[in-house]
Write a structure and sequence with these properties.
Oligomer: single chain
Helix content: 25-40%
Number of helices: 6
Strand order of the largest sheet: 3-4-5
Order of helices and strands: HEEHEEEHHHH
Largest sheet: 3 strands, antiparallel
Strand content: 15-25%
Radius of gyration: 24 Å
CATH architecture of the largest domain: 2-Layer Sandwich
Number of strands: 5
CATH class of the largest domain: Alpha Beta
Structural class: alpha+beta
Amino acid sequence: MENTPLKMDLAVLKQAENFTAKLNESPPDSEVRVNKAAKNSRYLPVSFIEMKLDEVFLGQWDFEFKGFQVIANEIVGHGNLTVVHPLTGRNIIRSGTASVMIMQKADADITDISAKYKNTLVKDFPHLESEVLKSCAKKLGKMFGRDLNREHTDEYESIYTGEEEKQAIRLQVLDCKTEDDLKKLWQENTDLHKNHSFLTAIKSRTAEIKSFDNGDNH
């Protein structure tokens, strides 16, 4: 069945944006692992990814391992992850790629296939499949590890239903007359500490108040 364009009213749009915002919350620190053999890169175990897919998409997901290629001592694979959006009912497809090393004896030439450990592919192929699944899932949002090893990240911000909220934020910030007022507003709204509009408004109003206090308005 092909996906068809959907017309959503404001209430459904808000729900959809809230759902997407949820997908872009960082995973719990307790679930993040560190791979010391890969420059201490951080990752999420495949068991966490699979369970989170079950929880978020109510089990409505499917993973297809599409194929692989052997390059020297590595297996490179690709696949597709399909999930059903719980609000729109539309299929969302995310592709992914990954590679894993074929385990070989120490100091072996990477092209010497005879140097691989006996039956190593029994675990190397499942490992590859897990890595491809994780690569696909990352594209769904931060919850699945999207930004774990990125130097520069961004925060999700609603664009369809967020204007009223943005205006309310601006008005609250403009009501602040001193830096203490701004500090109090900041402390009372911890849930907005990653909100781009809130951060921008706070910085702008702080600069205005400092400028006024320094007599730059004269």
